[in-house]
Amino acid sequence: MHYDARFQFDNTFFQNPKPCSNSLVYQVGEKYCGEFYDEEHHQFLYEFTYVLDGRGLVYTNGIPYPIKKYDCHWSIPDERHRITSDPDSPLRFFYIAYLSKDADIENIHSFLFGDNKLSPDKRLLHDATLKDDFLKILAEISSEDSYALNMIGLLLKIAIVKCFRLSTKSSLPVYNLDKKDSRYIAYQIANYIDRNILEITHINNLEAVFHYNGRHLARNFAKVMNMPIQKYFINKRMEKAAELLSSSDMTVTRIAELLQYSSIHSFSRSFGRFFGVSPGKFGKTLKNGE
């Protein structure tokens, strides 16, 4: 059974694939499933399916694998592929189908999918930071900027390298902090927040990353940076929100989701307290050139 999607932003270029740097993009889009979605097709391209929200199953050669928010499935040529959505938590997902002649990407494909290729379950990855890269691709595909295709090629390569690192378990940094060096601790914390602002949901997450008591981290950070960690985190979160409002066509709702706020209302309150204006008005002012 196959119900129509609640919405689908689909761009297909099967007859004339888009040249994005040294890669060819054949399809890119976003789909929000209806009650149920079930469509099998034969893969002749590499394809990423990235879950923005909801739950469901991704099938590879008839075998189901559960998928949830921030899961990324990497499909490869010569497979049968289909997706079903949980009726109680409909899937909303991004997808991009491509081929590439980029030397680095070809090496990754060869390493992962050659004679000892990864089994489908090993190609199911989880990473919240991929969301930003994929959503930027969606923004670029609608852009008339002359460098949009180059940007898509670069963003696709970044996503592929990230997935490669996740697949080979080489993406997790190990922080060996010297408890006596406050400056180094502060630097590492600030650097981590800067690079992972879309993934951090609460400042308490830092304890698990740095393997130190939160009070110790906060004390050293404030000593060097002259501000609490929480304030620094909020500043960077709002800077990212302003950047997304000014440099993309994303809605306020989408940006609130991307920054992992519990609701658009929570995001709007935080944004209003910080900038003195609602995110909607902020975005309109920028678009009107005021």
| Residue windows where pLDDT falls under 50 for at least 5 positions | none
- Text of the CATH class of the largest domain: Mainly Beta
- The number of domains is 2
Question: What would you call the structural class?
Answer: alpha+beta
CATH superfamily of the largest domain: Regulatory protein AraC
Portion of residues in beta strands equals 15-25%
User: What is the number of beta strands?
Assistant: 11
Q: What is the residue-averaged pLDDT?
A: 86
CATH topology of the largest domain: Jelly Rolls
- Tell the overall outline: globular
Largest sheet: 7 strands, antiparallel
Note the topology:
Layout: E1 7-12, E2 18-20, E3 23-32, E4 41-42, E5 46-53, E6 56-60, E7 63-67, E8 71-75, E9 80-85, E10 92-100, H1 103-113, E11 124-126, H2 130-141, H3 148-167, H4 182-195, H5 205-210, H6 214-225, H7 229-247, H8 252-258, H9 264-275, H10 279-287
Antiparallel strand pairs: 1-3, 2-3, 3-10, 4-9, 5-8, 5-10, 6-7, 6-9, 8-11
Helix pairs in contact: 2-3, 4-6, 4-7, 7-10, 8-9
